[in-house]
Design brief:
Layout (H helix, E strand, L loop, with lengths): L1 H8 L10 E6 L5 H11 L7 E3 L7 E9 L6 H5 L3 E9 L1 E2 L11 E2 L7 H9 L3 E5 L8 E2 L2 E2 H6 L9 E14 L2 E8 L5 H11 L4 E11 L2 E2 L4 E2 H18 L3
Parallel strand pairs: 1-14, 3-12
Antiparallel strand pairs: 1-3, 2-3, 4-11, 4-12, 5-6, 7-10, 8-9, 10-11, 12-13
Length: about 240
């Protein structure tokens, strides 16, 4: 970790060639908020900026930001497997499958056992047909479906094939289930939480989420957003000063 910190203190960004920047996304920020902030920070350099894999506002963790020529690699980075940690709350459901919306139904969890919970987790291992949440960023006729859902409109989404490589129950503190999941691209952990409740003949929703890995990239090597912005500003000024008139 000491070596990682040294690199963060004195990084050398190649703005002309492009960069892959790892950011620890703050809670409540959208992925687009992070891209917009960094794009504005590098505005004078006239660089393309994009992210490789959306994180929900209520999730934190690894967000891969590509700049310049590296934006061409976004699709390949998005295709990599992901790892997440977080908590599922048993005994209650929400329309968004997480804490974005209020609880709409409650269930008695007094009869649930740790063995049942661990068995339910194992039942998700392998390829699944998963339905995305109605409150998701998928587009239908050019509009994000969460916009339709927020207006109370019926949203019909098709299932998609996803693969769960690992679903580990790390700790149980009823009603909280602490988990780690490794999965394919396009997997909605909110849907896993919702379906996990169904597998227990109960209800559940995602109450916290953190992306820890994407491909070979790990959140331990990610920047605090404000630290990254300050570092880019310092190097950007140096680059502009060296440009020929």
């Amino acid at each position: 970790m000491e070596n990682i910190q040294e690199e963060k203190n004195e990084p050398t960004f190649s703005f002309t060639e492009g960069e892959v920047l790892l950011v620890d996304k703050p809670l409540t920020w959208t992925s687009f908020d992070v891209v917009g902030k960094l794009r504005n920070t590098m505005k004078s350099l006239k660089l393309k900026v994009g992210h490789a894999g959306t994180l929900d506002p209520l999730a934190t963790g690894l967000l891969i930001i590509c700049t310049g020529k590296f934006t061409k690699k976004i699709d390949s980075f998005q295709a990599e497997n992901k790892e997440y940690t977080g908590t599922i709350t048993l005994g209650a459901t929400t329309p968004s499958y997480d804490l974005e919306t209020k609880i709409d139904q409650t269930f008695d969890i007094g009869h649930l056992t740790e063995d049942q919970i661990k068995e339910a987790a194992q039942s998700f291992i392998g390829e699944l047909d998963q339905f995305p949440p109605a409150h998701s960023a998928i587009k239908i006729n050019g509009e994000r479906v969460y916009e339709k859902a927020r207006r109370g409109e019926e949203v019909e989404l098709k299932s998609r094939k996803v693969t769960i490589h690992e679903f580990e129950i790390e700790k149980i503190e009823f009603p909280l289930i602490f988990f780690k999941i490794r999965c394919s691209k396009g997997t909605y952990i909110r849907s896993i939480a919702h379906d996990f409740g169904k597998a227990l003949h109960n209800g559940a929703h995602l109450s916290s989420l953190r992306r820890t890995m994407s491909g070979d990239f790990h959140v331990d090597n990610a920047w605090n957003l404000e630290d990254l912005i300050q570092t880019i500003r310092a190097q950007k000024s140096a680059v502009i000063e060296k440009r020929p008139l």
